[in-house]
Amino acid sequence: MKPVKVGLLGLGTVGGGTVNVLKRNAEEIARRAGRGIVITHAAARDISKARICDTTGITLTTDPCEVVDNPELDVIVELIGGDGLAWEMVNRAIDNGKHVVTANKALIAKYGNHIFAKAQQKGVMVAFEAAVAGGIPIIKAIREGLAANRIEWLAGIINGTGNFILTEMRDKGRDFADVLAEAQRLGYAEADPTFDVEGIDAAHKLTILAAIAFGIPLQFDKVYTEGITRITREDVAYAEQLGYRIKHLGVARRTNGGIELRVHPTLIPARRLIANVDGVMNSVLVKGDAVGPTLYYGAGAGAEPTASAVVADLVDVVRTLTSDPNNRVPHLAFQPDALHDIPILPMEQVETAYYLRLQAQDKPGVLADVTRILGDLDISIEAVIQKEPSEEDSTVPVILLTRRVREEKMNRAIAQIEALAAISAPVMRMRMESLK
Ligand code: NAP
Ligand code: HSE
Q1: pLDDT tens, position by position, 332-391
Q2: Distance from the alpha carbon of residue 101 to the mean position of ligand 2, in angstroms
Q3: Ligand 2 pocket, 189 CB below 6 A?
Q4: Same structural domain, 331 and 406
Q5: What is the pTM of this model?
Q6: Is the CB of 107 under 6 A from ligand 1?
Q7: Residues involved in catalysis
Q8: Is 309 in the pocket of ligand 2 (CB under 6 A)?
Q9: What is the CATH number of the domain that holds 9?
């Protein structure tokens, strides 16, 4: 059988990795797919630039439309990123009746509902395994492997750049900005790295995971999102002293009132496996009612780990090229007419335990005032640490761990604590998860 011809948009970190993996493993891939898979055309901004891959035999252009409109191509792989040009090209490819593979989580999280409806109409596939957790086949695991289960919750380290930064800060005491620059050099970070460090990228990924786990539409605008930029090296050290690790987690949980969708720095007991996932590695815990807890681990970013997911999607597409479109695995795991409209809970209604760091004047009665405020709101304290004042500073850090309480109540407590004359800086608050 003739090889399937693929057009590639983008020859950067993931595009380059995809060319390399497809070439190196061409024979094994063809044995799995039943046909060869060949990239014949590719677009990039600057086609004279040195690449991490060998582009011999690939027709290059600076105009992505030339690729998308080429009638010889069956599949378009979108690896440009963002939701401008990429959105236009994916729409155009679907209009042209071509299957699409993409690693673009921003595009799927924001416009996936529209893209999948259009793809369904046109009878084409849009595959996006690489959009979540890099090389970990987490979409396939939830969508197909756990199809028997009612998923109760999932929690994951789903941004490699953020986890790399937190690990280097903890293990080597390195500065935030310095580690971020290294993540950019290594090709882990997004084109705009604030997406990584402010949790936007993780929120894109959580939107996708929640949709396929619970059978709900993609709702990126409802995710509560907090980044890692306010975490200090001291917070990392205090958490360690108390037996916890700080991880930037995405959490999606089904509750009686609705679904929690949140991305924020989180203290996790240090003995949990996921607390020991370091560097650029990602990990996702998924709890199903039948299977119990399951854990997935692997590289969350980088050229070849991400290419591994892109190429797996290409193999899936090629295997189903001749199948009836109505009998394919649905894009969002559930049949499009069977999606539920379960409400997403506002953050004020979410209940967690908390880590609080206060900067307090070193004088009698301050801790008593703080504990009175918490007590009056029925917030139980689990642990307290008060540090020695330093020579230059008359204020001391006080660290409190609380039991579980609704966010709305904790907001009131923090406002009252910050209003005390003896509290000299905004309270640093992080949520805690036992992940039992
Ligand atoms: P990248 O290295 O910046 O590559 C982007 C590519 O798009 C470049 O080759 C660039 O061309 C090309 N491009 C940009 N604008 C273009 C235009 N107007 N016309 C033609 N080509 C254009 O990005 P990346 O890291 O590979 O990421 C690609 C996608 O994968 C993004 O959606 C990202 O979120 C996702 N992703 C990345 C990773 C990772 O580890 N990097 C992991 C998972 C998912 P030039 O090279 O000529 O500038
Ligand atoms: N910038 C992303 C990360 C790439 O660091 O996780 C993988 O999606």
Answers
A1: 999 999 999 999 999 999 999 999 999 999 888 999 999 999 999 999 999 999 877 777
A2: 17
A3: yes
A4: no
A5: 0.97
A6: no
A7: 205
A8: no
A9: 3.40.50.720
